Known about the structure:
Elements (H helix, E strand, L loop, with lengths): L3 E4 L8 E5 L9 E6 L32 H4 E4 L1 H10 L4 E5 L7 H9 L5 E6 L7 H4 L4 E4 L10 H4 L2 H8 L4 E7 L4 H12 L6 E5 L4 H18 L2 E2 L3 H6 L6
Bound molecules: iron/sulfur cluster.
Amino acid sequence: MAQLVLATDDTGDAEIFASLQGEGPSVGTPVAFIRLSRCNLACTWCDTAYTWRWDETKPHRNGEVFERKANQVTLAPQDAAKRILALGQKRLVITGGEPLLQGPALADLVAHIPDMEIEIETNGTTKAPSHVDIRVDQYNVSPKLAHSGNPAELALIEERLDFYASDPRAFFKFVIAQPDDVDEVLALAAKHYIPPARTFLMPEGTDSAALNKRSGWLAPLCLEHGFRMSDRLHIHLYGDTRGS
Ligand code: SF4
């Protein structure tokens, strides 16, 4: 049976916790979170670089390199399920890193939590296997724009964007660092028929001051183009911390 490779919290234990969803359509909802390790992209501003940045080959603005052994822990899916159920929440958010890199283990995990609602956060470059997909209530798809530093051929896979755009369970969430980034979103939305009602623009930032500053110019752009806007509630509540 495939094992889950999880990120670790500040104590070195698996990053499984209860909190309020901080972003996107479910913002403010009490949920259980499980954060999986590893990512197939490398965003320069990634706030969970401890899930993937094991050496200096990929640039990151903080320059921090994480020791892989200290930042990964392996759990059997049924053991992860027990910890999730012990949190007493109705809904599970599966996040990362890029959690869909671990499809077979995720299929075992969701089979052990048959009554929970499932929300998956993905960068939109990959798909869930059918045994996972059938259980998913909501996808939060966050394609990475040019300012992330990823090559477009890795970050913006046309077939995948078409796939998620055609799925009413999928909400798109674009991280916006500067006003010009919205032009890139408009081009992607037109090309892939991504409905504005399922599109959130979210300011980039890992502290309240940065989020508030960018929100000031982002709000009128959302209004102008009919996009929804997402804040990052968990940053305002808890700061840029693990397990929150
Ligand atoms: S896709 Fe997400 S987890 Fe991966 S590097 Fe980018 S922000 Fe980080």
